[in-house]
Design brief:
It contains 16 helices and 12 strands. The chain is α/β, with parallel strands linked by helices and 416 residues long.
C-alpha cells in the first residue's frame, strides 16, 4: 500500500482515511499490510509494517551498478538502475541521496512536490522487488505513479483509491499535469475505489473509465477513545457556537460560511462563529468578516490537531461543512460522534450515507443561515439531531469498510 500521509503526522483527511482503512483491514486475521510512506516519523502505530521510502537504499553516489548490486542484492535490477540513471536523472549530482544511498524526502507537500512524487515512484519499483505481496493499493494521485511502477515490476493487480480528483480541488480549473497523473493511474488500475458515488461519476465521466471497474467505497470513523468521549461539553445556554473546521481554501466554501454567519447575526447576537483551520483563503476570510461587520463575533483559532479537533467539536453547538465539491468529508461524522449536529452541502459525498444531518446547497447562504438559526434556537431539533446523529454514525465503521475492500481485493485476484 502506497500512501502520502499517516498519523501521527496529519495534514488532512487523507491521513485519517489511510489510518482507518489499514486499521479496518488489520482486524482480518489473514491480512497483512505493508504501508509505504515518503518520510515516517517513527511514531506510527505498530499494527502494520511501515516502510519509509527515505530509508530504502537505491544508489550510492559516484558508483556504478555493479557496486550497488554487490551491496544490495535483490533490491535493484540493472534495468531499474539504468532506467533511473539515464531516463529519470541523467545528472547524478542532481539526486538528493544521502551517504547510505537513500533518497531524501521533505515529507508533506513541499515546493518540489512533483520531484518527490517521481522519486517515490522510482523507489516503489525497488520495494516491489524486495517484498512479498498479493495486491497493490495506492492512495490518491501522489502515489498513483508508484502503484503503476510496482504493478509493472511485479505483475500484481493494482487498486487505486480516489480520495479526491483535481476537479474537486480546483473548482474545475484542472491542472493538466495532475490530471495526466490521475488518468494514467486510473488507466492502469484493475480496480478504482472512489470515496463516494459522486466521485465515481466524476471518474467515469471526466477520466473516461470503465464503470465496471469503478466502485463507491465510502469512508467511516473509528470509535472515540474514552479520553475523547470524556471531553466535557460547555454550558452554552446563553451563547451558542457554530464551527467550520477544515482547510480554508476554495474547495471548502469558507466564504459561504461567513456570508451565512452575517445573515444569522442580523437576527440574533447570541451566537459566535469559529473558523478553525488554515489555508490560502484565511486572510481573505478575516477581511470578509470585517467587511460584514461581524469580526467581534468571529474567531480564527488556526490549525487544530489531535485532541484539539475533538475539543473544538465538543465546544460547538453546530458544525457546518459548506464544501463546493467534497468527495466525501469525514469531519461531519467526527462532529456527530461528539454529539454536535451538522449541516453539510448537498455537494458532499458523505451525504450519500448520512440522513441525520441538514443538507443545503453550498451557495444557498439563506438556507444555511436558516438551518444554523433553527438548531441554535430550537432545543428539540438540537437534541434530535444530536441523539440520532450519534446512533447513525456509530454504525459507520472502518471494520465494515475493510470487509468491503477485502471483497474487491478477492475479486481482483479471482478469489470467490
Amino acid at each position: 500500500m502506497f500512501g502520502w500521509e499517516f498519523p501521527p503526522k496529519i495534514y488532512g483527511g487523507l491521513a485519517v482515511a489511510s489510518y482507518g482503512i489499514t486499521k479496518g483491514l488489520s482486524l482480518q486475521p489473514d491480512m497483512e499490510t505493508i504501508f509505504c510512506l515518503p518520510k515516517p516519523t517513527g511514531e506510527e502505530e505498530k499494527f502494520l509494517k511501515i516502510i519509509g521510502m527515505n530509508q530504502v537504499p537505491i544508489v550510492y553516489k559516484g558508483h556504478d551498478y555493479n557496486y550497488v548490486k554487490n551491496r544490495m542484492p535483490n533490491y535493484m535490477t540493472a534495468e531499474d538502475y539504468y532506467h533511473f540513471r539515464d531516463h529519470i536523472y541523467a545528472d547524478f549530482s542532481y539526486m538528493h541521496t544521502n551517504d547510505m544511498g537513500c533518497m531524501e524526502f521533505a515529507g508533506g507537500y513541499p515546493e518540489n512536490l512533483h520531484e518527490e512524487i517521481n522519486n517515490f515512484s522510482i523507489i516503489a519499483g525497488v520495494v516491489a522487488r524486495a517484498e512479498q505481496f498479493d495486491i497493490i493499493h495506492a492512495h490518491d494521485w501522489l502515489t498513483y505513479p508508484a502503484g503503476v511502477h510496482a504493478k509493472m515490476v511485479s505483475g500484481k493487480p493494482l487498486c487505486i483509491h480516489v480520495h479526491a480528483t483535481d476537479f474537486d480541488r480546483s473548482r474545475g480549473k484542472v491542472n493538466p499535469t495532475v490530471y495526466s497523473i490521475e488518468k494514467n493511474g486510473m488507466d492502469h488500475a484493475d480496480c478504482i475505489m472512489c470515496v463516494s458515488e459522486l466521485t465515481r461519476q466524476t471518474v467515469i465521466k471526466e477520466y473516461h473509465q470503465d464503470p465496471r471497474k469503478c466502485f463507491a467505497m465510502h469512508n467511516a470513523v473509528y470509535p472515540l477513545s474514552k479520553d475523547l468521549l470524556d471531553i466535557p461539553r460547555p454550558d452554552h445556554s446563553k451563547e451558542k457556537v457554530v464551527t467550520f473546521l477544515g482547510r480554508i481554501t476554495m474547495q471548502k466554501g469558507p466564504e459561504y460560511f461567513v456570508e451565512a454567519a452575517a445573515l444569522v447575526l442580523k437576527r440574533t447576537h447570541n451566537i459566535r462563529f469559529c473558523m478553525a483551520g488554515s489555508g490560502d483563503m484565511m486572510e481573505a476570510m478575516i477581511d470578509l468578516a470585517a467587511k460584514r461587520g461581524i469580526a467581534d463575533r468571529f474567531h480564527f483559532p488556526g490549525f487544530q490537531r489531535g485532541r484539539q479537533v475533538y475539543e473544538c467539536y465538543k465546544n460547538s453547538d453546530v458544525f457546518v461543512m459548506p464544501s463546493v465539491s467534497e468527495p466525501f468529508g469525514i469531519a461531519p461524522l467526527e462532529a456527530m460522534q461528539c454529539g454536535t449536529p451538522s449541516i453539510i452541502s448537498k455537494q458532499s459525498g458523505c451525504g450519500e450515507i448520512l440522513d441525520k444531518v441538514i443538507k443545503v446547497d453550498y451557495w444557498d447562504i439563506y438556507a444555511m443561515a436558516d438551518a444554523i438559526y433553527s438548531i441554535c434556537t430550537n432545543p428539540s431539533l438540537f437534541k434530535y439531531l444530536q441523539e440520532e446523529g450519534i446512533k447513525e454514525v456509530n454504525e459507520i465503521t472502518w471494520e465494515k469498510v475493510g470487509q468491503r475492500i477485502r471483497r474487491l481485493y478477492n475479486q481482483c485476484l479471482g478469489i470467490n
